[in-house]
Write a structure and sequence with these properties.
- Among the domains are: about 5-90, Alpha-Beta Complex (DNA Primase, Chain A); about 100-235, DNA primase DNAg catalytic core, N-terminal domain (Alpha-Beta Complex); about 370-430, no CATH class; about 450-580, Orthogonal Bundle (DNAb Helicase, Chain A), CATH 1.10.860.
- Helix 19 packs across helix 20 (about 470-475), helix 19 (about 450-465) packs parallel to helix 21 (about 485-500) and helix 24 runs antiparallel to helix 25.
- Strand 10 (about 215-220) and strand 11 form a beta hairpin.
- The protein is built from 25 helices and 16 strands.
- By secondary structure, the chain is α+β, with helices and mostly antiparallel strands.
- The strands form 4 sheets. A 5-stranded antiparallel sheet has the order 1-2-3-4-5. A 5-stranded mixed sheet has the order 13-12-14-15-16, sandwiched between helices. A 4-stranded antiparallel sheet has the order 6-9-10-11.
- The chain is about 50% helix and about 10% strand.
Amino acid sequence: MRYSDDLIEEVRSRNDIVDIIGENVRLTRAGNSYKGLCPFHNERTPSFHVDRSKQMYYCFGCHAGGNIFTFLREYNNMSFTEAMQYLADRAGVTLPKEEYTAKDKENADRRSRLMEVNKRAAGYFHYLLRTEEGKNGLAYLKKRELSDETIKKFGLGFSGRSGNGLYRYLKSKGYDDELLLASGLFKFDEKRGAYDLFFNRVMFPIPDSRGRVIAFGGRVMGDGQPKYLNSPETFIFNKRRNLFGLNLARASRRNYLILCEGYMDVISLHAAGFDCAVASLGTALTEQQASLMRRFKENVLLIYDSDNAGVNAALRAIPILSAAGISSRVVNLSPCKDPDEFIKARGAEEMEERLKNSRDSFLFVIDQAEKDYDKGDPKERTRFQHFAAERLATIADDLERNNYLETVAREKYIPLEALRRLVNSKLAVGTPAETYEPPKAGGKKARKEDTGIRASEKLMLSYLAAYPEAYGQTKGFISPKDFTDPLMRQVAEGLYPQLERGSPNEAALVDLTEDTELQSEIAGIFHAKIPVDNAAELDRAFTDTVMKILDGSIGSMDLTDQASIQAMVKKKQLLDKFRSGGTTLHLIWKGEQDG
């Protein structure tokens, strides 16, 4: 749906970005803006800023940024239309129903049809489980001690052995090959034609948080490979943004979620009465999954397999959960391997006890690190104590740090005052700086490096938005057509009319594109920190930027007629004045910028 710019602006202006983001991220006031831990990457030192006056956010660590719509799209996985509807409802604004564009309608229809295909496929698999063809699958589930009630609750099924049974069934319902291919449930090749992706497998429907089937997982019967197979990512399924079992766990009365590894772990926990269990989908926990959990609960208990792989998975998950604002603890299942095995061997009551006695995640990290040191060797013991002190020094809150310090000293037999002095020495010199590593494939795209004229054009836009007098001093000889980079020109074309009317509206400029990567880049323009220390440096930096814009504009001019040649001559004359020192521009110094 495409709404008018006026309506978008009305909805945006009636919602405060600080309030919206503050519902999901813990923010504290910092000068003229608000600061918090970025919800889009793992960090311990806040680099995420929310500016109420600009109605924008920006992270100086991972460079995620945008306006209130961008945040809801990225954090809550909403479409623009869904974000618009949510904010309109929140502000009491009635949206028109008839403004769907052809593209919006096409996408909505496609989403609906794919949901319908998955729903029919889930019904087919569930039906097949109770037939002669599915008897091996049903026997497997019964061997795992799953009741009929649990099988029905999770919609478990069987994929069949014919190789194209699901395809023939859905074709009989009138679905075309293009849609079936897009569902991810089938493969096509010239020799075999169309055939089912899932073959001879117990099927686990994967619902979204609202209970709509968006994908499937299948466990092979026998010795086939891979043992577990998931649907590929599709128009409606992104494994990094979904969690198995969340549609049920979100309604749990428990004040925490249990995060485990696999489908059967979740199902066994739910069957035993632990209705708050969820699992990631064949991947290590992602930042998006942690953010999704934070929407429903602030506490998570980690129950990964008790082997080395499970311990390492827990160690990777802990900082991701912390960055999302989630308090985590780790459950010890030893001597059992996983939740399913534990419940069968020890029962639900013992599981409840293990949950109650779960280990604080900070102390769990210290415990695991301790195993890497030979405590009988004085040098090794000292190295471990320094490691513990460095970890303690990362805790920002003084009272919380002191509480952990006392616990670590007591449990690890370290003299309290000696450990305190060591921690204070770490704080005095600063703990090692955190570095942000861009996500691998499937995450955000690598940022385009700003060099040469592009960097100058970006900086010029920053000046124009931050200093009203910048526009007045340059509007006679710099216009949007002097910006050579496509994105910078697009932003300039939106910014200049705003400046002519009297003031910039940076949040509206973010909506010039629907690409969230480009929206982050636009947000970065208006959060640029101009590296100057006084008024004289500011004037020189601004004048230098203007000269570079003029120089770049001259070099890109198309001199095909007399008018363009005359314009080029005037620009060269003005540039020569700047270079000779005959012209200097002045901006009003505002003092140091907020960081």
